[in-house]
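ugh finaly. both done.
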Amino acid sequence: MSETTGGCLCGTVRYAITGAPLSVIYCHCESCRKHAGAPVVALAGYRRDQLRYTAGAPQVYASSAGVGRASCKACGTPLTWEGDGGEIGPMVEMLVGTLDRPEDFAPSCHIHYAERLTWFDVADDLPRYSKWHDDGEAPACHGPAR
């Protein structure tokens, strides 16, 4: 199995993930935007048991019922979304920007597109889902809103 590594800006927190991600997505929800301080966030999702911290330990903030968001205690780098993955079990989604090779993790879709900032969009033709990408709903559109 392949291993993916990453960490925070200051290097206090380092992690390793075994295996391929279950998904790589753009999230436009308000909570992710606020956590990252960005107009959209790219996330690579894994089962929680695929992740291990190799240096330091992040602090986890309970951002809503059943959801935690980890960041470095030293430099503040946002690292994860953590919660229930349904049939998958406990999940962790790593912010792609914290991976050592983020260029290897291109998103396949957008979620929570209904919450997007109207002044920002990504110039791609990926499907955009109003909420989730795996609940059976058809995409709201492909490509930026016009």
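ok and the 2nd:
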Amino acid sequence: MIWPFKPSTRKQIARIEINGAIASATRERVLEALEEVEERKYPALLLRIDSPGGTVGDSQEIYSALKKLGEKIKIVASFGNISASGGVYIGVGANHIMANPGTITGSVGVIIRGNNLEKLLDKVGVSFKVIKSGPYKDILSFDRDLTTDEEEILQQLIDSSYQQFVETVAEGRKLSVETVKNFADGRIFSGEQALKLGLVDRLGSEEDARRWACELVGLDPEKTECHTIEEPKSLLDRVFSGRGQVKSGVGSAINWLEFELATSGQPLWLYRP
């Protein structure tokens, strides 16, 4: 016979992955997953982050949801190969953070990029006539350079976003703002360095982080299941997911191009060498 009740989640821990650049699709998926964690009453969450960061607003919404959930359950963040910039912002929303000694992290800062194609357009004889309601409506247009006033406006925007970032890291890691500013100059560092700076609590693998999450809620790490909450896949996606891995390099490049185009001119909490 089929048992009519779902197995208790109170003796399991949940797991959510955040991979790649953080944007609206990531936010939607993660927020839905966090709701499921709360609804199903998991006692703890293992948050695996492998991301260079991404958009500001999406990172902030995920962080806020984590802080709210962290008041009810234990959340341990595990930093993978890279958890930088927006990845750090999200990570400090967890109760505890573990990183590998060689994890690339840090890059606390803000960047905004535009493309100036003025010289190229001149060579091919292309020009634009712009009618605008105000002097700054076409700020960061790709067919001309920035004016001095525009640079000042964008710098003020960046400074505001940067201050929000620093204050959030300081609050999440229980550090002073001045302490955070000492390393929040965009530099990256290893997990080992991050431990000394107070950005992470322990060094270890994802498995170590899982065991820690279990111990925090009084569960036996040897017997406790870890349930990964992920976006439901269609039958075709499940059938062909293995084949898709062959083209993962090409797909990754396309995704990055789409991200760059979609976020051009936006402030980003993003590290990309």
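summary for the 2nd one i guess: Strands lie at 12-19, 44-51, 53-55, 74-84, 96-99, 104-106, 188-190, 202-203, 225-228, 268-270.
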